[in-house]
Amino acid sequence: MKFSPVTIRGGLTITRPVISAAGCVGWGDVLRDLISPTALGAIVTPTVTISERIGSTGSRTAETPAGLLYNTGLPNPGMTRFLDEVLPLLAQYGAPIIVSLAASNPQDWSALAAALEDSPDVAALEANLCGLPQANGSTDSPTLQEYLVTAVRSIRRACSKSLLVKLPPDHFNTADLCRKAELEGADAIVTGQSLRAASMRWSGDQPSLRFGEEGGRYSGPAIKPISLLQAQLAAGASTLPIIAGGGIMTPQDAIDFFAAGADVIAVGTLCLVSPNAINTLNDEVAAILQKIPGDDFRALCLTKRPRAAG
Ligand SMILES: Cc1cc2nc3c(=O)[nH]c(=O)nc-3n(C[C@H](O)[C@H](O)[C@H](O)COP(=O)(O)O)c2cc1C
Predict the structure, then answer these.
(1) Ligand 1 pocket, residue 41 CB under 6 Å
(2) How far is 100 from 108, CA to CA, in rounded Å?
(3) Which ranges in 29-163 belong to alpha helices (H)?
(4) Is the minimum distance from the CB of 188 to ligand 1 under 6 angstroms?
(5) Residue 3: pLDDT band by 50, 70, 90 thresholds?
(6) 3-state secondary structure 27-43
(7) Cα–Cα distance between 189 and 182 in angstroms, integer?
């Protein structure tokens, strides 16, 4: 079987199975010399907010035996400088650019989306529901659905490009959030966000939580089983294309996610640990698919589901 291009309502077409997850190939500068421009089916930017954010001070990453604990604080230049200074760099890759966004109120979601509507270099928008707390509360259940609705409605009002909604890594809400996102006009679901997590640091006999009481976020191989279930739950609940990530480190991991219902695969931590692996991952995924009898990779999906037209 083979991968066939995934067309997402609103204009985004992904012609190769693997894309980069938000934030993991940076702003087009650091990894430019390591990652081949043609290696990825699309690039998702780090999350952009209305105003510049400096991000976390001090060390931002800590390795654990099976995953990466990180706390970036969403450093970004703000939307105006992103458009002027960063987007031209990213456009040189030649891959479709998906801009990750976060806001804490409807006005900011709309303003971010409106700023991108006329940019020919931007293929799609991705709403990061774990990016910023809401202005009037936390992103925790039970207000999560309201937060999602606010984000999708506000973006939809201001921009007609493909809108991807990146869910929090929460199995209890996944099916409901998928249905809500689809109902409100989202065009694709993204699964596999990193999880809140902590690690302990010892200075002599004094323990302290790395990254403070809020902890950090956890990504990499340790989260694959959790993300795989979320992808499967999303595929069962939505007719929209599913872009699934979370712990994908090998070509076989990617195939596992196709079986769970993914249409496209997103890799994050792998880009940081082994950028060279990205350069060959799409070809390796294609080679495994080729050995499986059948026509289209979607036949691997364990959940037989209707799919929205692109
Ligand atoms: C260093 C780093 C930065 C990240 N930045 C963002 C970001 O800006 N926005 C976002 O939605 N996710 C961000 N993520 C989460 C990834 O997009 C991805 O969902 C997560 O890492 C799980 O996938 P993985 O196990 O393949 O890394 C970041 C992850 C890492 C490791």
Answers:
(1) no
(2) 14
(3) 78-81, 87-91, 106-117, 144-158
(4) no
(5) very high
(6) CCCCCCCCCCCCCCCCE
(7) 8
- Residue among 219, 250, 272 whose CB has most ligand 1 atoms within 8 A, to mutate: 219
208 Cα: distance to centroid of ligand 1 (angstroms):
24
The pLDDT tens digits of the residues spanning 99-128 come to: 999 999 999 999 999 999 999 999 999 999
Indicate the pTM of the whole model.
0.96
Going by alpha carbons, the residue nearest to atom 30 of ligand 1 is 24
How confident is the model over 255-267, as pLDDT tens digits? Answer: 999 999 999 999 9
CATH superfamily of 6-300: Aldolase class I (3.20.20.70)
pLDDT tens, residue by residue, 92-104: 888 999 999 999 9
Pocket test for ligand 1, best of 64, 71, 100, 194 (most atoms within 8 A of CB): 194
Domain boundaries, the chain: 6-300
